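Hey, quick one: can you model this chain's 3D structure?
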Amino acid sequence: MTYEKALEYIHSVSWKGSRPGLERTRELLTLMGNPEKKLSFIHIAGTNGKGSTASMSANVLLSAGYKVGLYTSPFIFEFNERMRVNGENISNQELAEITEFVMPLAESMEDKPTEFELVTCIAFEYFYRHRCDIVCLEVGMGGELDSTNVIEPPVASVITNIGLDHTEFLGDTLEKIAETKSKIIKENSIAVVYPSTPSVEEVIEKRCKEVNSLFLKADFEAVVPVSASLEFQEFDWKGLKSIKLHLLGEHQLKNVATVLTLMEALRSKGFAITDQAIREGIETAVWQGRFEVVSHNPLFVVDGGHNPQCIESLVKNVKSYITQRPLIVLTGVLADKDYNSMYSEMSSLADEFVTVTPPNPRALTSDKLAEYIISLGKKATPCNSIAEGVALAKAKAGERGAVLAYGSLYMVADVEQNAKAFCNEIRR
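Sure thing. Here's the predicted structure for all 428 residues.
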């Protein structure tokens, strides 16, 4: 099987059964010999920040000398990003080999797996073949019925920031969503939790008591900001001074506090994680598409945030990092997203908008998005392609201005590639 055939098969898989639950994933893994039972995990759920938290955690553990798997979604530039070992994406050849192994087993099932279930099983086999010491496993959606939740009790569970997203599947209150996510916490383990409202914390703490797991709140106070720029932010943590974090924004300091609380918990379970490993792991961590500075001259920032909490953090970052410059917003959105929460406050910060159509069947067209933004009282120009949008946004920003591209993760790759090419042209 070629890499192209493997991706074609993976993306062709559709839901062929209406029964909710983990039965399909468990059945397929049993046919595969249960590779997940031969691995140790840190299981990470949450509405926002779980990707950044998983990536930073994996990086610290790698710096500590462990062989580390990392499972995240969605991807930005290529499918292979979704499963990595020691920071390296799965190779085309190995993805093809494992898919060829899994495909006939999946096809033998009466109730065949969904795409995400299939990918999760492929990832477990990949991590097993590489004999990973630990896998940082990001939940796809929710927790209780997410296919990643077939694993045995993990070394630790992490619940990051919880907000209202996917409410049609997970519930229409923070407490209902927290209950779903808390089900990744299993017997006799540790749960590291991003502090939230008392009612949300009560739900998660109740789950911990039910399964005899330790409930630990991330220690936000221990992370003390020192300085911030468009290059990095510095903070002190306990005995460590001036740690550099290249993920920008106040919310990332809270995410790093969650990671550091997790590392202390892992130390208590016998993991050999030195202060130097913590510093190196945090300082070399990257996470693309989250308030990412693509270029400084001209200034071009890309952010894939789209739900209300992401937009709230993005607005804070704009106020903190992009001031006293004309701001041009390059944006595209899916038609089923909440426009008002995405643009109402940003419209007061932006001088002008340039709209594009993200490469997704659910996308709102650039013309319709421009009409909506104009209804908010702002100037908006629709473009026929992302390349055209990048060029127009840069032209409107000029040398003194800045471009902020946000709205949909599906457009991040095209925006970044075109922005970098454009900036390189300017430098020549």
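One thing worth noting: The first strand starts at residue 41 and ends at 45.
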